[in-house]
Amino acid sequence: MSNSLPSTKQIVRSRPGQSGFPGKKIYLLILFAAAVTRLNAQCSELFISEYIEGLSFDKAIEIYNPTSDTVNLAGYRLETYFNGNDTAGNHVNLNGLLAPNDVYVVIRPGADTSILLQEADTISLVCNFNGDDAVALINTITGVTLDVVGVIGEDPGTAWPVDTGTGTTNDYTLVRIPSVQSGTTDWSVGSTQWIVYPVNDFSHLGAHTMTPCNVTAPSLYFLSDSVSVDESAGSISFLVGITNPNANSTSVDVSVSGGTAVDSVDYIFSSPQTITFPANSSTPLIVDVTIINDLLSELDETIEMSLSNPTNQGVITNGSFIITIIDDDGLSIGKDVSSAAVKIFPTVSSGIFTVNSEMNSTVSVSDIFGNEIWKKNDVQGNMKPDLQAFAKGIYFIAVENAEGKVVKKVIMQ
């Protein structure tokens, strides 16, 4: 390719508020993808958002402003390095003001009129590149090269491969993937950052989609630390809240992480249970737990809930919640094993348990349905209920004496 090029001609397309062509629409697609290594700080500088190397003269470069400020383009230059040369063979100084999230398009003279008239901010032979010519965006005030397509000083022959070989810098339209928020001078990184479209695909020119910068992570939490409910409460509800919601939905798992209550015996809850906050929604979500009302006198029981596995970069700020189930079957508050002078052990056994009562007591054993399967009166000291003849599972050993009545849940395995 010849390095002898005519001078450039500039046609600046109007922005909103100016006369002439109407301003371009700005589209933001909220997408989150894996982070990639970049030279510049994210969202701090302009970068090349589209590269078109089409048939004949159909060539263009689109530049995107990811910052929150309007940028004066007088401090920027686009350069082309032809055929492996390490000195720019052509350049164009940009001009005008570029609003946040807007694009600036440079197109080669003679390109298809559908893009030349509708999308061009500047018409310049800096876009007189083929697939073997590197293109660079420069900040002329800082002297920093912000972004490069290809490798300056290298002649790849025909083109550089893009996206592990699905495309090249020759005869393709390349659009920067939305997760990229800054340019790079490292082509080993840059070559992986493009969506590859067929030659002469102009449908993406004039607007760019990018993950917004400085998105505050959503905060997920239980709205309270604990709640106490009667055993007869039936279905109960608690709330999970969110702050800093954004344009993506946010999910989190609600799980039972501990407690003395037993699933399917004292309560019913599918754990873990995934709940999802819709995009931009700060409305708390309701989670339901069913409390099973049995007919056994027993100590109050607890269900410990937790939050885990948030999506959308969410942060858990209060991830613990305790439900206390208050027994309503006659066990006096404050009457526990020690106050009744009773010990029952072990809690898990092959079928033989030990009951130690300092007072004359009645000992009985019931299954999970409240059916009494074993009973002995006038027990004092140690005795060993033998349940080996019964099915494996959960049982309740009750000890009643002058001090009160206590029930302990045991498991036969």
Quick summary:
The protein has 413 residues and is an all-beta fold.
Write the layout of secondary structure elements.
Layout (H helix, E strand, L loop, with lengths): L46 E7 L5 E6 L6 E2 L3 E6 L8 E4 L3 E2 L4 E5 L5 H7 L2 E2 L10 E6 L4 E6 L11 E2 L4 E2 L3 E5 L10 H4 L3 E4 L21 E4 L3 E5 L4 E9 L6 E9 L8 E2 L4 E5 L7 E7 L9 E8 L6 E4 L1 E7 L15 E4 L2 E2 L4 E14 L4 E12 L9 E9 L2 E9 L1
Parallel strand pairs: 7-8, 15-23, 16-24, 26-30
Antiparallel strand pairs: 1-2, 1-13, 2-7, 3-6, 4-5, 4-9, 9-10, 11-12, 13-14, 15-17, 17-21, 18-20, 18-22, 19-21, 22-24, 25-27, 27-28, 27-29, 29-30
Keywords:
413 residues; mainly beta; Immunoglobulin-like; 3 domains; six-stranded mixed β-sheet; 2 helices; 41% strand; disordered N terminus
Account of the protein in words:
This protein folds into 3 domains: 47-197, Lamin Tail domain (Immunoglobulin-like, Sandwich), CATH 2.60.40; 219-326, CalX-beta domain (Immunoglobulin-like), CATH 2.60.40.2030; 342-412, Immunoglobulin-like (Sandwich), CATH 2.60.40. The N and C termini lie far apart (83 Å). It has helices spanning 113-119, 187-190; strands spanning 47-53, 59-64, 71-72, 76-81, 90-93, 97-98, 103-107, 122-123, 134-139, 144-149, 161-162, 167-168, 172-176, 194-197, 219-222, 226-230, 235-243, 250-258, 267-268, 273-277, 285-291, 301-308, 315-318, 320-326, 342-345, 348-349, 354-367, 372-383, 393-401, 404-412. It has 413 residues and is mostly beta strands. Helix content is 3%, strand content 41%. It has 2 helices and 30 strands. The chain has a 6-stranded mixed beta sheet with strand order 8-7-2-1-13-14, covered by helices on one side. The longest helix has 7 residues, at 113-119.
